[in-house]
Amino acid sequence: MKKLLTLILVTWTSLCISTTVFADTAKGQGIYMNFCAPCHDSGIAGAPKIGDKAAWQERIGKGTTTMVDNAVNGFKGNSGFMPAKGGHKALTVEEVSSAVMYMLELSK
Ligand code: HEC
Fold first, then answer.
1. What does 48-92 look like in DSSP terms, one character per residue?
2. Based on CB atoms within 10 Å of each CB, which residue in 63, 70, 78, 85 is the most buried?
């Protein structure tokens, strides 16, 4: 019994530590509409527009994990400044990640 508990604990801990990319696009759409669309719908301040395949192509090459990281922690690139979590600190990593997945789904 103790062994089982240890196993569960170890598995749980390692799941929490590894960088997770969440792919709940339905949830992502809601987050996107509320927190990301103000910039990414119209391309304000150099933001890559959602659905603009050319604008996303080069970024997608970096890999999903890097892009999620940049969206969560903030990112200064060649075209502008992406605020950490879109400027909404209360968002969880999971929420930001699902919004990124939603954006990529429509932009690749
Ligand atoms: C205040 C405007 C603004 C808001 C709000 C915003 N972004 Fe951005 N975002 C930007 C800009 C500008 C860039 C481009 C930065 C660059 O490449 O120079 C960017 C880039 C990105 C990238 C590409 C990162 C990369 O590695 O190339 C992702 C992914 C992203 N945003 C996700 C999001 C998500 C998810 C949200 C909502 C939670 C969000 N953004 C909200 C302005 C914004």
1. PPTT-HHHHHHHHTT-HHHHHHHHHH-EE-SS-EE-GGGG-TTS-
2. 85
Q: Does residue 12 lie within any of the structural domains?
A: no
Give the CATH number, domain containing residue 76. 1.10.760.10
Q: What is the pTM of this model?
A: 0.84
**Nearest alpha carbon, ligand 1 atom 30:** 71
pLDDT in tens, 69-102: 999 999 999 999 999 999 999 999 999 999 999 9
Q: Which atom of ligand 1 is nearest to the CA of 69?
A: 26
Percent of the chain predicted with pLDDT > 70: 77
Tokens for 70, please give them. 């940049």
Q: Does ligand 1 lie within 6 Å of residue 107's CB atom?
A: no
